[in-house]
Amino acid sequence: MKRSFEEDKCLLARCIAGDNEARDALVVTFSNLVYEVVLHTFRSKGLSFERDDVEDLHNTIFLKIFEKDCRKLRQYQGKNGCSLATWIRLIAAGIALDHVRKRGIDSIVGQKAKVPLDEVFGLEAPQKDALKLLEEAEQRRLLDEAVEHLPPQHRLFIKLHLERGQPMPRVATALQLSMNNTYALKHRVTVKLREYMTKRQESACQT
Hints:
By secondary structure, this protein is mostly helical. The protein has helices at residues 5-16, 20-44, 51-74, 84-103, 117-120, 127-135, 137-148, 152-163, 168-175, 179-206.
């Protein structure tokens, strides 16, 4: 169903105002669109990819959309019939292309598995929970606690890439890892944090 300009305008305003439910709604609404952009970017460059590549870039795009107080969303003006979906697509395409350039062809080419379209569009949008973890005070406390339980290398990765915003190539150099191993490390860190948070939340519900 096509969204109206007023619906988009209202959703956008709530996101910019810091409404977590609105931000979750934006992720859910435009998740498939972002997946399409990611797939198109990989395929247009003739690159092989795996499910984790698609999911990781999808999540990165939404993080960047909301970072710096939704700066990218604040730039949307809706002129010349440009819908919010079109604006999200433009943002996603720019981030995806930049990601491919920084990551380099060698880190993707040669991988065997391809991601079927139906599998990709069946993926859930995990960024919904991640946004809440970042923005809710109690969740932030638990996240900090989870980080403290990670090995030193994982904590250094978080400090360099997530806290200081260093691009992945610089992080790889600092950690003396290949780009493939650096992206694998990022995935492991995400999984471990998510598992720890889930256990703590389940434990809290049982008490």
